[in-house]
Amino acid sequence: MSKKKIIWTIVLIIVVAGGLYGYKEYTRTNKKLDGVKADFTTAADALISEFDVKDSASYKKYDDKIIEVTGIMKNSSLENFTIFLGDPGKLSAVKCELDTSFRNNTVFPAIGSEVKVKGHFVGFQKDEMMGLGMDISLNRCIILNNEKK
Questions:
Q1: What is the 3-class SS of the chain, one letter each residue?
Q2: Is the pTM of the predicted complex or chain greater than 0.85?
Q3: Count of CB atoms situated within 10 Å of the CB of 136
Q4: What fold does the segment set 40-143 form as a domain?
C-alpha cells in the first residue's frame, strides 16, 4: 500500500469517528430523574441555611448533583412550570424548574403544602447588595409526593 493511501485511510477514519461523535453529542438528551437515586436528601430551609453560611463550599458540594428537597411551597409559576420551596416568611427559596416531560402526570400542589422534589442542582444566586435573599436553582425536577393516580 502506498504512503498516500495510508494517509487518506487514516484521515477518513478520523473524519468518520469525528462525525459519529458529533452526531452522538448533537442527539444527546438529559436523563430523566424518576429512576435516578438522589446524591443528597435535605429540607429546603436547611439547604438555604447551608448556602447562606458557606456558599462556595456548598456550591462545590452540590455542583452537578441530584438533590431531593422537601419544603413548603411558597409560590408557583404554571407558565414556566416552576415552583419555589422554603419558608414563606423569608425571601430566599429553592427554585425548582420542573421537567416538562412529566407535565401530564403531575398535579401542581397547593401553595402552603409540603412538597418533595428531586432535581439537578445548577447553581444559586445570592443578592448581597439589597439583602433580598437568594435562590438555589434546581432543574429537571420531578414532584415525588404528588402524582396523578
A1: CCHHHHHHHHHHHHHHHHHHHHHHHHCCCCCCCCCCCCCEEEEHHHHHHHHHHCHHHHHHHHCCCEEEEEEEEEEEECCCCEEEECCCCCCCEEEEEECHHHHHHECCCCCCCEEEEEEEEEEEEECCCCCCCEEEEEEEEEECCCECC
A2: no
A3: 28
A4: OB fold (Dihydrolipoamide Acetyltransferase, E2P) (2.40.50)
Three cell numbers written together for 45: 430551609
Burial of 22 (0-12, 13-18, 19+ CB in 10 A): exposed
Largest interatomic CA distance in the chain: 78
Residue range 87-114, pLDDT digits in tens: 888 888 999 998 888 777 777 888 899 9
Kindly list the domain boundaries of the chain, sorted by start residue: 1-30, 40-143
pLDDT value at residue 128:
65
